Amino acid sequence: MDKISVLIADDHPVVRQGLHSFLQLQDDIDIVGEAADGLEAVEKVAELLPDVVLMDLVMPKVDGIAAIRRITALSPSTRVLVLTSFSDDDKVFSAIKAGALGYLMKDSSPADLAEAIRAVYRGEPSLDPAIAKKLMDQLSKGEEVIAEEDLTIREKEVLRLIARGNSNKEIAASLQISEKTVKNHVTNILHKLHLSDRTQAALYAVRRRMAGDDSE
User: Fold this and answer.
1) Domains in the chain and their CATH numbers?
2) Using one digit for the tens of pLDDT, what is the confidence trace for 182-194?
3) Alpha helices in the chain (DSSP H)
4) What does pTM read for this prediction?
């Protein structure tokens, strides 16, 4: 069985040690490295290309938000799961916009953390319940979100695949269309649903249980 390769990025050695000790006990998770600051996290991603980065937000040299941006640009296949003590709106929204696929609080249970890593690895957004509510409230605040029924059949297919974490290239291969066509569909989806990026589109689909639904 292939294991999920995980890089732990946190500036507190005790936190890193505790996470490493617990996660290494999981049969399907392998800790391949650790980083004590954001810059080291980016460098380790370039070297190790892990499946998942467990990312703290407040770190020296390069903060977590900036590190997430660099990591998602450097290694699009690497998923980022934020693990932090901060639930401030600005940090939450900045992390998601930077490319984080998950956002978990440090007081979450070890079991929830392991499941969040597995979910993010599968390309599924994984959010602390309180964080998920913040995002959903933000999406609906002051604007009317058009129902997915207003999307075309093809756009709904693309949206489901976005929610599963598929890249444009993967979506194109799955639907047997060009990447340019996929990009056009993504643009139309965001416009119709009044969303600003793919992460919001994925959250929208997950909220409406579209990610696992292959029927029309």
Assistant:
1) 4-138 (3.40.50.2300), 143-207 (1.10.10.10)
2) 999 998 888 887 7
3) 13-23, 38-48, 64-74, 89-98, 110-121, 129-140, 153-163, 168-175, 179-193, 198-207
4) 0.65
